[in-house]
């Protein structure tokens, strides 16, 4: 039976100058007990659809027309009070950013109880009992219901919001990007939890995300949105395996995958459409390589494909099979296929040996007087790495593992506490003693957030030219240097960007400006700290390809720091996996991808979702969270979470030299054996001979 | 709650230290002023040097500065404020009624305006762009930027002279001879005199609270947690309450700050309404270099501000759960 039926939904936002047509005639329906996915890049209108369903549109948003039928009643015709009664009782919501979607000055238990009290007439004691029960369901300690949000980690806060969504056993749960901003491992656990619970409650789920992989693994049906319209919809198996819409093909192509290192992901060139007017042509026409004159005249209506649950909005849907074949070839998209030309790697440009960065914890006056040893947060604790010219070294790890601190320490933005750092043959002390200016010119850093790291009041010309003035570099030909660099990062024609301000650029263009700013000084070394984490998939791939190209042609060494293993696999030559300030595995990318030695690497690899719905993936769910970096357990830092940990692991810490050879090393006493098939193997957990740590599989019920 | 106790202990220690610093500054500054309280007596020529020395010795002013300072500190910290030089009365007997008069006028006014204007400000912020918002901002800013004596005189002209509904001056009718505070303040006559200055004080303070509350709610309005509250099915007013609760801290800070400063009285208001408050008394005392009176008054004011700050810290810890843990480890 149909639970939710959305028909011709149109939502507009009124802004000062114009009307933004965010959602244009979107229709879809969700049956009872079905998981439905809504996929799309940012600006595709997917969150607006969710807000319209919930009646949470901001003040300037209006539902122009269309019906939202839930259980037979049209939600749009209800009064505000009736609408409120439906909320949470029948439709619950898991918000996007767990970090700030909980009320900071209200205890988590009270917030859940508040949802219960609003809709049910129950005593406080009963509500509290229910909250305790819910905490248990989502895997949180029931004794913590009086704790405030800031006392929980990001993943645990998301569990609280899930518990809240379950409080009244709703018929439909709308989850808006429930895992964005969480680490892969946490993301995997949260998705697993949502699925497990939803199975038990027998409710329907509307999952909104830009991660096609997550939808492929969790949903039965999906709609792919672009520019506020449905491009393709139907059962996940049909749409993702045999897409009939050029956009879906492009989107699917641009997802980097871990085990396909031969195939470079293909980006969709261009940027999302401007939605200031009613769409007159196909919204994807500007970026579509198959566009014809017909596409310019009208946006295609979804066409149902015969004999299967599959609809596609494309004028050329009949030629889908040919298009699919052509879409795999990068040249179709106007991207020259220069092959994966493995350039020769040059000499070592940067080397660290036992590099450490410790932060002293603040102490009370009393313990300072007593002369007590201060506690240290060992953000980077003995990291030995080397990077050659023309090489990209990927640094991967969960948040809090010290990878950003490592980047900042290498860039000498932080003073190393101990260890050696050699750049271009000179120790770092050489640069700190008066040669810092030279170092700053040769080593550049690109930061995570392109929205914050560019001065909003400067034009592109000023932003990119500023380093030239500071370093007095090519000052006689500033303009030419700027134009050259902009073209190098793919902002062509460069002249048209010179006088623009950051807010006039798209996210991808902004990050390119940030990269241009780093490259304008012709550096020898580039440190990229999560440069793509805020970008949409198609733009992310663009940036990765750009960096890859730079490493190949410009003879510079690059350190690429990210938590996204798939994109690291794609861009790097070698990889270093970090856990709690230490490198626990390093080596050539393909060797790590196919035969990870350290159990932590194995679980990281297995946590990445698969975009192919037919592929089966065994989850290795790591229990718990990384331990407190101040008070590390003795022995291997990973032992408390390791499914294979034995006594030896808890007694002494394995060094990186423990196993492997020059090309691939891991700090583990019991590395995954080479004959074990792949990382995704969960056997380790069930292996009877290995005493798993006490709580290793409490995640499984 | 050991963490909270440690936090409280720290704040207390800091407050005591601050008090000591404040009273020392008062002492030094007053001694730096040219002249002395007996200047007038000397210049009048009625006293000979011997008599002057005798008077100075009586007040302990012949001792060294260091001895005077120690004397001053021990007396002050045991709340012995000494004798007013010009009034020949114990200082506390002079100050106490004035202080009470000021407080009885300003504390209720401040509390009233804090509650009313904050609530109004939150409501205005929630309905951003509405006529109510614009109107309330304009009128309170106007009241805030007009000097309080202008507003006061305007009110006196309208309500006392033209409409003749309330008396223009004073705290009690001149014929009343009340005995003790209870008789003074609990009477219709007092209420009659009280209404006008009270209203002016309320209006004067209202602008700050209104703007603070409005800005706080405007800032919180688009936040994710309110969206989740809304999705839970909370009504508009319940959501507003949560937004307000989350923007309490600046209001709280401002309230306690003002509360501490109330001990200085509101000089202009007291003058216009001939309200026998502490502000007026202080101005007179400074003019006449009445050391003990000024010292005591400033001490009380400084103490009030410091205690109010301590109160703010403690209230913070209560109202914002993130404060007690963070604040406990730093500082």
From TrEMBL, chain A:
Ranges of biased composition (kind: Basic and acidic residues): 609-622
Domain ABC transporter per the UniProt entry, residue ranges: 4-252, 350-605
Matching SMART domains: AAA
Catalytic activity line of the entry: Ni(2+)(out) + ATP + H2O = Ni(2+)(in) + ADP + phosphate + H(+)
Alphabetically ordered keywords of this record: ATP-binding, Cell membrane, Ion transport, Membrane, Nucleotide-binding, Translocase, Transport
Chief place of localization: membrane
Residue numbers spanned by region Disordered: 325-345, 601-634, 653-701
GO molecular-function terms, A-Z: ABC-type nickel transporter activity; ATP binding; ATP hydrolysis activity
UniProt xrefs under PROSITE patterns: ABC_TRANSPORTER_1 (PS00211), ABC_TRANSPORTER_2 (PS50893)
Compartments where found: Cell membrane
Superkingdom of the organism of origin: Archaea
GO cellular component, one term: plasma membrane
GO biological process assignments: peptide transport
Its EC number(s): 7.2.2.11
Protein's recorded name: Nickel import system ATP-binding protein NikD
Phylogenetic lineage: Archaea, Methanobacteriati, Methanobacteriota, Stenosarchaea group, Halobacteria
From TrEMBL, chain B:
Main location per the UniProt record: membrane
Segments forming domain ABC transmembrane type-1: 99-312
Assigned keywords, A-Z: Cell membrane, Membrane, Transmembrane, Transmembrane helix, Transport
Record has DNA-binding as a keyword: no
Location within or outside the cell: Cell membrane
InterPro entries, A to Z: BPD_transp_1_N, MetI-like, MetI-like_sf
Topological relation to the membrane, as annotated: Multi-pass membrane protein
TM ranges: 12-33, 103-126, 147-170, 190-213, 251-273, 293-319
A GO cellular component entry from the record: plasma membrane
GO process terms (BP): transmembrane transport
Highest taxon listed in the record's lineage: Archaea
One Pfam family per UniProt: BPD_transp_1
Assigned protein family: Belongs to the binding-protein-dependent transport system permease family.
Protein name according to UniProt: Binding-protein-dependent transporters inner membrane component
Organism: Natronococcus jeotgali DSM 18795
């Amino acid at each position: 039976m149909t639970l939710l039926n959305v028909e011709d939904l149109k939502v507009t936002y009124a802004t000062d100058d114009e009307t933004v047509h965010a959602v244009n005639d979107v229709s879809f329906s969700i049956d009872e007990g079905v998981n439905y996915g809504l996929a799309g890049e940012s600006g595709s209108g997917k969150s607006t659809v969710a807000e319209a369903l919930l009646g949470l549109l901001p003040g300037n948003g209006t539902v122009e027309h269309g019906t939202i039928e839930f259980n037979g009643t049209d939600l749009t015709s209800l009064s505000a009070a009736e609408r409120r009664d439906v909320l949470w009782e029948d439709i619950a919501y898991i918000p996007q950013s767990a970090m700030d979607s909980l009320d900071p000055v209200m205890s988590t238990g009270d917030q859940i109880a508040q949802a219960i009290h609003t809709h049910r007439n129950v005593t406080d004691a009963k509500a509290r009992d229910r909250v305790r029960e819910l905490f248990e369901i989502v895997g949180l300690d029931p004794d913590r219901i009086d704790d405030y949000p800031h006392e929980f980690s990001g993943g645990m806060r998301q569990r609280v919001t899930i518990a809240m969504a379950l409080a009244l056993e709703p018929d439909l749960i709308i989850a808006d990007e429930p895992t964005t901003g969480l680490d892969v491992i946490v993301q995997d656990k949260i998705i697993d939890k949502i699925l497990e619970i939803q199975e038990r409650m027998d409710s329907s789920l509307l999952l909104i995300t830009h991660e096609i992989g997550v939808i492929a693994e969790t949903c039965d049906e999906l709609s792919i949105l672009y520019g506020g319209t449905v491009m393709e919809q139907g059962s996940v198996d049909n749409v993702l395996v045999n897409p009939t819409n050029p956009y879906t093909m492009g989107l699917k192509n641009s997802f980097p995958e871990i085990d396909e290192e031969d195939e470079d992901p293909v980006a969709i060139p261009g940027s999302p459409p401007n939605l200031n007017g009613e769409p007159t042509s196909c919204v994807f026409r500007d970026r579509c390589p198959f566009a014809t004159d017909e596409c310019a005249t009208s946006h295609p209506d979804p066409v149902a494909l015969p004999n299967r649950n599959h609809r596609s909005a494309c004028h050329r849907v009949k030629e889908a099979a040919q298009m699919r074949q052509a879409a795999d070839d990068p040249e179709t998209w106007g991207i020259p296929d220069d092959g994966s030309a493995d350039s020769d790697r040059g000499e070592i440009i940067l080397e660290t040996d036992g590099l450490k960065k410790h932060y002293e914890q603040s102490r009370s006056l009393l313990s300072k007087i007593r002369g007590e040893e201060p506690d240290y947060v060992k953000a980077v604790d003995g990291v030995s790495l080397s990077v050659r010219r023309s090489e990209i070294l990927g640094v991967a790890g969960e948040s809090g593992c010290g990878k950003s601190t490592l980047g900042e320490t290498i860039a000498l933005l932080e003073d190393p506490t101990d260890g050696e750092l050699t750049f271009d043959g000179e120790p770092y002390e050489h640069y700190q003693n008066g040669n810092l200016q030279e170092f700053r010119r040769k080593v550049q850093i690109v930061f995570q957030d392109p929205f914050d790291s560019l001065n909003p009041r400067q034009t592109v010309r000023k932003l990119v030219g500023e380093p030239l003035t500071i370093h007095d570099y090519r000052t006689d030909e500033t303009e030419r240097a700027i134009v050259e660099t902009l073209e190098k990062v793919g902002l062509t024609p460069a002249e048209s960007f010179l006088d623009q301000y950051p807010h006039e650029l798209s996210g991808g263009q902004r990050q390119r400006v940030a990269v241009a700013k780093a490259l304008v000084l012709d550096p020898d070394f580039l440190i990229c700290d999560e440069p793509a984490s805020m970008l949409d998939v198609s733009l992310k791939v663009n940036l990765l390809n750009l960096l890859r190209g730079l490493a190949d042609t410009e003879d510079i060494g690059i350190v690429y720091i990210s938590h996204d293993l798939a994109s690291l696999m794609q861009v790097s030559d070698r990889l270093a996996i970090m856990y709690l300030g230490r490198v626990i595995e390093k080596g050539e990318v393909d060797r790590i991808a196919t035969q990870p030695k350290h159990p932590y690497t194995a679980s990281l690899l297995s946590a990445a979702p698969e975009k192919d719905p037919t592929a089966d993936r065994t989850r290795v769910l790591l229990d718990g969270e990384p331990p407190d970096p101040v008070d590390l357990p003795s022995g291997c830092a990973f032992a408390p979470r390791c499914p294979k940990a034995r006594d030896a692991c808890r007694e002494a810490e394995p060094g990186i030299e423990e196993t492997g050879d020059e090309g691939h090393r891991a700090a583990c006493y019991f590395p995954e054996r080479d004959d074990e098939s792949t990382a995704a193997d969960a056997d380790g957990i069930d292996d009877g001979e290995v005493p798993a740590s006490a709580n290793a599989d409490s995640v499984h019920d | 709650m050991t963490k909270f106790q440690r936090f409280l202990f720290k704040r207390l220690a800091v407050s005591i230290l601050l008090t000591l610093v404040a009273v020392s500054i008062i002492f030094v500054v007053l001694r730096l002023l040219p002249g002395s309280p007996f200047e007038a007596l000397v210049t009048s020529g009625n006293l000979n040097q011997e008599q002057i020395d005798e008077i100075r010795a009586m007040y302990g002013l012949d001792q060294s500065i260091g001895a005077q300072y120690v004397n001053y500190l021990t007396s002050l910290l045991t709340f012995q404020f000494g004798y007013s030089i010009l009034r020949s009365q114990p200082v506390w007997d002079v100050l106490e009624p004035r202080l009470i008069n000021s407080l009885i006028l300003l504390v209720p006014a401040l509390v009233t305006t804090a509650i009313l204007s904050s609530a109004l400000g939150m409501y205005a912020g929630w309905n951003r762009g509405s006529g109510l918002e614009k109107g309330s901002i304009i009128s309170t800013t106007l009241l805030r930027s007009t000097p309080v004596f202008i507003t006061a005189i305007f009110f006196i002209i309208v309500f006392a002279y033209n409409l003749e509904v309330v008396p223009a001056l004073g705290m009690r009718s001149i014929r009343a001879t009340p005995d003790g505070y209870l008789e003074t303040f609990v009477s219709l006559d007092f209420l009659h005199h009280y209404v006008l200055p009270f209203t002016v004080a309320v209006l004067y303070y209202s602008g700050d609270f209104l703007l603070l509350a409005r800005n706080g709610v405007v800032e919180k309005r688009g936040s994710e947690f309110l969206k989740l509250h809304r999705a839970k099915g909370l009504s508009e007013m319940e959501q507003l309450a949560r937004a307000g609760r989350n923007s309490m801290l600046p209001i709280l800070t401002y309230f306690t700050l003002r509360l501490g400063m109330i001990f200085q009285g509101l000089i202009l208001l007291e003058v216009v309404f001939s309200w026998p408050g502490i502000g007026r008394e202080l101005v007179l005392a400074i003019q006449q270099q009445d050391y003990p009176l000024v010292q005591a008054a400033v001490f009380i004011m400084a103490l009030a501000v410091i205690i109010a700050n301590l109160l703010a810290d403690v209230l913070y810890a209560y109202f914002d759960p993130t404060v007690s843990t963070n604040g406990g480890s730093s500082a």
